[in-house]
Design a protein that fits this description.
With 311 residues, the protein is mainly alpha-helical. The protein is built from eleven helices and no strands. The C terminus is likely disordered.
């Protein structure tokens, strides 16, 4: 049997089992670990399907950052706390019926009249970039990406509004994890930052982009934060607020500027590359800061950190 086919079969078997284990596990911490493993295997499945951009986003955002959020919540709840497993067949049956209908609708879809891959290859030189995924997300279907960045900004704004403001205190003390965490902060964080900048730069021609780069940056920030090398995030500062809105603001400014000379988000061909890079840089900063706020919580009042006196 072909090695690739064997790997695909193992992934097809492992993914449903991990989903079932994550849902049915009584221990919350164990469920979070299984969820992270599921996200990493799902990223590998996307690689097998040829969607490297989606795989990078899955590994960085879904498995990495979301897993860190779940683990943080599990630690705050208490690792020994167990959740009751309640079986509700009356919920499972409608879900199975909806899933079956979706599969049937997908199976019976008519063949598309226009071959989108061929059309994309024909129009790719007009997009300003060489990566077809970037061309779709930031040029041909830029409306979708603008809405995604806006929704993420609204999520950060909602967290900012809901989470109680508090000064930095004992809860923000560095985690004592032995020599492993400081070594990871010294050696792994510089590599993560370099890889993030590389993914941002090559996103116009190879798999990568703002979301993947932001996931690596916020991962590096989390490591620095829990190792005590980064002070608590204070959101009540104008540079932080400017960074949080930069992605949406720049995207909207480019859309309006393009609309003055034609249609919204229809870039001039000569300026398309520069505008896409500008959007990617601003979006990377905003996404990383929003994810950092979601992980670290809200700190509007500077407090003590490493023995500093309150200001």
């Amino acid at each position: 049997m072909d090695a690739g086919l064997t790997l695909d079969a193992l992934l097809a078997l492992a993914l449903p089992l991990l989903v079932w284990r994550a849902v049915s596990a009584r221990d919350v911490f164990q469920a979070c670990v299984v969820f992270i493993a599921y996200g990493l295997l799902l990223a590998l499945a996307w690689v097998r399907l040829g969607a490297v951009d989606v795989a990078l986003a899955e590994a960085g955002l879904s498995a990495g950052f979301t897993g860190a959020l779940l683990l943080d919540a599990a630690v705050r709840l208490g690792r020994a706390r167990e959740r009751p497993v309640i079986w509700r067949p009356w919920v499972a049956l409608p879900c199975a019926a909806v899933g079956g209908l979706l599969l049937w609708a997908l199976w019976t879809l008519p063949a598309p009249s226009t071959r989108l891959p061929e059309l994309l290859r024909e129009r790719l030189p007009d997009s300003g970039v060489k990566n077809p995924v970037t061309a779709v997300l930031l040029n041909f279907r830029a409306y979708d990406t603008l809405l995604e960045v806006g929704v993420l900004w609204l999520a950060g704004l909602a967290a900012w509004a809901v989470l109680p403001a508090r000064p930095a205190g004992p809860a923000d003390a560095p985690v004592d994890a032995g020599p492993v965490l400081p070594a990871l902060a010294r050696l792994g964080v510089p590599v993560a930052v370099l890889v993030a900048l590389y993914l941002l730069w090559v996103g116009s021609s190879l798999p990568g982009g703002a979301f993947q780069a932001a996931a690596l940056l916020v991962g590096a920030a989390v490591v620095l934060r829990v190792s005590g090398r980064l002070p608590p995030v204070v959101t009540d500062r104008w540079p932080m607020r400017l960074g949080l809105v930069a992605g949406t603001a720049v995207f909207l400014a480019v859309a309006v500027g393009a609309g003055l000379g034609g249609r919204l988000l229809e870039y001039p061909r000569a300026a398309a590359y520069g505008l896409i890079v500008l959007i990617e840089v601003a979006a990377m900063v905003s996404i990383a800061l929003v994810l950092a706020v979601l992980f670290a919580g809200r700190r509007d009042v500077p407090g003590t950190w490493r023995g500093e006196a309150p200001r």
